[in-house]
Design brief:
With about 250 residues, this protein is an alpha/beta fold. Helix content is about 45%, strand content about 20%.
C-alpha cells in the first residue's frame, strides 16, 4: 500500500465532547482531496471516552488510528510519539479543537517544497482571527512570544499555534532530538529545526479561539519560561562545543 501524502496528528486529552465532530470534519474535508491521507490520534492518558470514540471510527475507517498512550505524560510527549510513528510524506500537527480549520492545511502545503516546515501564525496581519482569545491570554501570549524571539528563535512571531506542517524526514530529525513532555515542545522543536538548518515558513491562517484549553497560565507559563532559558543555555553550550571541534580546540 502506498504511503499517504498527508498524515494528521491530533494529540488528545479528555476530548470526548469534541473529538468525534472534529474527526468527522477532518474526514469530510480530506475526502474531497486528490491525495491519500490518514489521521493518527494520540491520547495522553485520557480518562474519558476519547479512546473509545476514536476506536469506533477506526473500526469503520482504516484511515484513522488511535494510540492510547498511558499514563498521562504531557502534550509534548504524545506529539513527539505521533510524529515519530506517523507514515506520510507530510505530517500535520492539528489540535483537537480545530482552532485552525483543517482546510487551512492547503495554505501550509503551498509553502512546500520550498520550506521544510510551515507553521500557522496568528499575529501576521494577513491572518483572520475570527474569535480572539480573552485579552489577558492574548497579552501574555504576545509577551511570551517576545521572550521566545529574544532568547531563542528570532523572526518567528508565533511558536505556539497548534497547526504545523513538517516534511516527513525533517520531522524525524527534529523530534528524535526533542525531550520536553509539556507545552514547551513547540519552541523546542522549532529551536531544534533551526539548529539543524531547516527552513521555517510562517503562514497566515484562519483561527478561532475555542474554550477548553488545557494550558493553565499561572501553572504552565512559569514552566515554559524555565524551559526556554534551559534550552537557550543548552544551545549555547552545544554551539560552543561544535565550534571547538571545528577549530581543534580542547
Amino acid at each position: 500500500m502506498a504511503r499517504p501524502h498527508l498524515a494528521v496528528i491530533i494529540p488528545a486529552y479528555n476530548e470526548e465532547e469534541r473529538i468525534g465532530p472534529t474527526l468527522e470534519r477532518v474526514r469530510e474535508y480530506l475526502s474531497t482531496q486528490a491525495y491519500e491521507w490518514c489521521v493518527l490520534v494520540v491520547s495522553d492518558g485520557s480518562k474519558d471516552r476519547t479512546v473509545g470514540i476514536v476506536s469506533e471510527m477506526a473500526a469503520q475507517d482504516p484511515r484513522f488510528t488511535i494510540i492510547d498512550s498511558q499514563p498521562n505524560r504531557g502534550k509534548g510527549f504524545v506529539v513527539r510519539k505521533g510524529f515519530l510513528l506517523a507514515e506520510a510524506d507530510l505530517l500535520l500537527l492539528s489540535d483537537a479543537d480545530l482552532a485552525s480549520p483543517i482546510e487551512e492545511v492547503e495554505k501550509l502545503m503551498e509553502r512546500m517544497p520550498a520550506a521544510d516546515i510551515a507553521i500557522g501564525s496568528r499575529p501576521l496581519k494577513e491572518s483572520n482571527l475570527e474569535v480572539r482569545q480573552p485579552w489577558h491570554r492574548e497579552m501574555l501570549g504576545r509577551a511570551f512570544n517576545f521572550a521566545v524571539q529574544l532568547l531563542a528563535i528570532k523572526g518567528i512571531h508565533d511558536t505556539q499555534c497548534g497547526f504545523k506542517l513538517f516534511k516527513r524526514d525533517v520531522a524525524r530529525e527534529v523530534f528524535v532530538r526533542c525531550k520536553l513532555d509539556g507545552f514547551s515542545f513547540d519552541f523546542e522543536a522549532l529551536m531544534a529545526a533551526r539548529d539543524l538548518g531547516y527552513s521555517i515558513a510562517e503562514v497566515p491562517v484562519r483561527w478561532r479561539h475555542q474554550e477548553g484549553s488545557k494550558v493553565v497560565l499561572m501553572r504552565d507559563g512559569p514552566r515554559m519560561l524555565r524551559d526556554l532559558v534551559k534550552l537557550r543555555l543548552a544551545g549555547k553550550r552545544r554551539r560552543l562545543s561544535l565550534n571547538q571541534e571545528a577549530t581543534g580546540a580542547g
